[in-house]
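Hi all, long-time lurker, first post. I run a small reading group and we've been trying to get comfortable going from sequence to structure in the token notation. Rather than ask abstract questions, I figured I'd post a concrete chain and ask someone more experienced to write out its structure so we can walk through it together at our next meeting. Sequence below, copied exactly:
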Amino acid sequence: MVDYCGEQFIVETKIWRGLARHQQGEEQVFEYLKHHHLDKGYILTFNFNKKKEIGVKEVPHRDKILIEAVV
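-- Answer (accepted) --
Happy to help. Here is the structure in token form:
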């Protein structure tokens, strides 16, 4: 949880350990958003694979939005 200028943001950092673990991370952020009554959260994933797909994308997850960045 980041508090900045009176606003709250959920930011989660992860290391890529496969699709199943990534989906668990998305669910974890979703639960944080529900608990704090927020609609948007952020995931920063560090991926050390040679054939990774880097970038930022918006992912709808149930009734919330996750902004995911893979580096």
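A couple of things your group might point at:
The first helix runs from residue 19 to 36.
The beta strands are 2-4, 7-15, 40-46, 55-61, 64-70.
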